[in-house]
Amino acid sequence: MRSFSLSLAEACAVVRRFGGLPVFAHPGAYPDCPDPVAAVRSAVTDGALGLEAFHPYNKTRRPANGSGNLVTKFERMADELGLVKTGGTDFHGRSTDVEIGDIGLTEEGYRQIGY
Questions:
Q1: Domain with 105 in it: what CATH number?
Q2: pLDDT given for residue 69 in this prediction
Q3: The most confident of 23-27, 42-46, 71-75, 88-92, by mean pLDDT
Q4: Please, which of 26, 30, 47, 99 could form a disulfide with 12 given CB 3.0 to 4.6 Å?
Q5: Measuring CA to CA, how many Å separate 41 from each of 65, 70, 111?
Q6: Do the domain assignments include residue 9?
Q7: Residue at 6 is within a domain
Q8: Has residue 18 been placed in a domain?
Q9: pLDDT in tens, 55-113
């Protein structure tokens, strides 16, 4: 059991204080989240500066809140909100058919986050 907890705003502030980029990870993959768009907007209010737009939703888990092209939706949302777009495979072992490198950032995407 944890002995402490942080609010999202506190966590974002800590990440930024130490030179990191607080990013909302795979916003369309939380089945208990009825409105991922509202959740992203709330995270931005709390200090998130990036959004994991590129994620293999179709391979790792059933997308929350219906179907549709979630990558395109979150890519547009990141542009609208001025967020850095991140991405990755979210690889957690061989329990899915996702391989490391299946999805991720372009060279330009890495430049945008400072790498």
A1: 3.20.20.140
A2: 80
A3: 42-46
A4: 47
A5: 16, 16, 24
A6: no
A7: no
A8: no
A9: 776 554 444 444 458 888 898 999 999 999 888 766 666 666 666 666 666 677 777 77
Point out which residues pair with 83 in neighbouring strands: none
Query: Does residue 12 fall inside a structural domain?
Result: no
Q: Which amino acid is at 67?
A: S
Q: How far is CA 110 from CA 33, 53, 74, 79, in A?
A: 29, 13, 17, 16
Indicate the number of domains in the chain: 1
The stretch 9-21 carries a mean pLDDT of: 95
Range of the domain at 101: 24-112
